[in-house]
Design goal:
Helix content is 86%, strand content 3%. It is mainly alpha-helical.
Length: 151
């Protein structure tokens, strides 16, 4: 179960609790059900963290792949440029083509880097939002328990 779903169930347990007369913000809840949900939450958080780590690994792989592709494109461009050197017209054409290939390679690398960073940012933001929501729910639950304990 996802962290957000567990948090919603915890909130449901708190909201479905019976109000304690004469005690502000106090409810009677099923402690066993809440414990089960907290155990599920503890089990789910490492999964969310692992997913965030996977996103970071994917980022590194995407960047490494983009760099390898760029290097291969540059090597291919250099090979093409060397093979075309035989006279001034061919040299000029080869240099123009090599520059175009390099420009295209650099453009593609920049686009791959931008796309991978955007992908990673989005996934990290989602993971951050999920963890923030989970943490907020834990704080709310903790405060509810603290309030109950004081009463």
């Amino acid at each position: 179960m996802k962290v957000e779903d567990i948090m919603e169930e915890i909130e449901g347990v708190l909201q479905s609790g019976l109000l304690v007369p004469m005690k502000k913000n106090s409810v009677i809840i099923n402690a066993g059900e809440l414990r089960e949900l907290l155990e599920e939450l503890r089990a789910a958080l490492p999964v969310e963290l692992e997913e965030a780590e996977n996103v970071l690994q994917q980022k590194e792989q995407i960047i490494a792949s983009a760099n390898a592709q760029a290097q291969q494109i540059v090597r291919n461009a250099e090979e093409n440029r060397r093979s075309l050197i035989s006279n001034s017209e061919i040299i000029h054409a080869a240099e123009t083509k090599a520059k175009s290939i390099l420009f295209n390679a650099n453009t593609k690398v920049a686009e791959l880097n931008r796309a991978s960073m955007e992908y990673i940012e989005n996934n990290l933001k989602q993971a951050e939002d999920a963890l923030a929501k989970a943490l907020q729910s834990v704080h709310v639950t903790k405060q509810a328990f603290a309030a109950k304990k004081q009463d």
